[in-house]
Design a protein that fits this description.
The protein is an alpha+beta fold. The chain has a single domain, classed as TolA/TonB C-terminal domain, CATH 3.30.2420. It contains 5 helices and 3 strands, in the order ααααββαβ. α4 packs antiparallel against α5. It is elongated. The N and C termini lie far apart (43 Å).
């Protein structure tokens, strides 16, 4: 297999779908999550309405299939301990569509957020 190297300037000029060649699929996945950040904010706002003292951190694990769909979703860490928040985040997250991994294989990554 031929290994390709990219310089930083080359990577900055590449579209999102190709960025994984520069930084790994995690960067592509995180960019997709950030595009859907309103979903996570809505879940947090609903939970904060139930509990104004809500604080914590949540780490999400994704496995993305070759078509860009969420194949598996799990919580690595959930400091909020709010089942309704966890369910809201899960339902939103599994509905997202990610760019297909350039490898053509399943890709895994994690994403952490807090408030």
């Amino acid at each position: 297999m031929m290994k390709t190297s990219f310089s930083l300037s080359t990577c900055l000029a590449l579209p999102l779908l190709v960025l994984s060649a520069c930084h790994g699929y995690k960067d592509t996945g995180v960019a997709t999550i950030r595009q859907n950040n309103a979903d996570l904010k809505a879940c947090i706002q609903e939970a904060a309405a139930r509990n104004p003292n809500l604080k914590g951190k949540m780490e999400l694990a994704f496995e993305i299939d070759p078509a860009g769909k969420v194949n598996r979703f799990a919580y690595v860490l959930d400091e909020y301990k709010d089942p309704l928040l966890a369910e809201c985040v899960r339902l939103k997250s599994i509905a997202w569509t990610f760019p297909p991994p350039p490898s053509g294989k399943m890709e895994k990554f994690t994403y952490t957020f807090s408030n």
